[in-house]
Amino acid sequence: MDFDIYCDECFPDLFCSEKPQARYALIGSLWLPTEKRAEFKTAIHALRDRYQVGGEIKSRKVSPSRLEFYKALCDWFFDQGDDLRSRGITIEASKLNLKSATDAYFVTCYVADDPETKKKILNSPGWKNPFI
Fold first, then answer.
1. Nearest residue to 47 via CA among 30, 62, 64, 68
2. Per residue of the chain (132 residues), what is the pLDDT tens digit?
3. Long-range contacts, 90-96 (Cβ 8 Å, 24+)
4. DSSP class per residue in 52-113
């Protein structure tokens, strides 16, 4: 089975600023079967249309006017069961020793995910190395 894997970070100033404002860095990933991508995209667009929410979906944008949308999105997410998986870590800013955006990318893409799961994916027939 092929997977699409999306990685992201919260508070990117922690990765590249000499005077970061946040105390913790959050790094996460979202995993979904490739064949479900179009279906999931359509479902999320339908939720956005229903609640009239545009722009990027992110935790910092939760507000009273968008709360029902985010609740519906969370309900939809958990209704997907094993077809939609997430993983995240929280790192105290004082423990980070990153010198560049490349270091941040490495942490986001390679450290954020469970090693055993990563091993299974890298050894699966559906794995396509994005660097080749």
1. 68
2. 888 888 877 776 766 667 777 888 777 888 999 999 999 999 999 999 999 998 888 877 888 999 999 999 999 999 999 999 888 878 777 776 655 555 555 555 555 455 565 555 455 554 444 433
3. 90/24, 90/25, 90/26, 91/24, 91/25, 91/26, 91/27, 92/23, 92/24, 93/14, 93/20, 93/22, 93/23, 93/24, 93/25, 96/14, 96/15, 96/25
4. T--S---GGG--TTTHHHHHHHHHHHHHTGGGSEEEEEEEEGGG----SHHHHHHIIIIISS
Q: Torsions phi, psi of 89, nearest 5?
A: -135, 155
Amino acid at 59: S
Nearest to 104 by CA among 23, 22, 13: 13
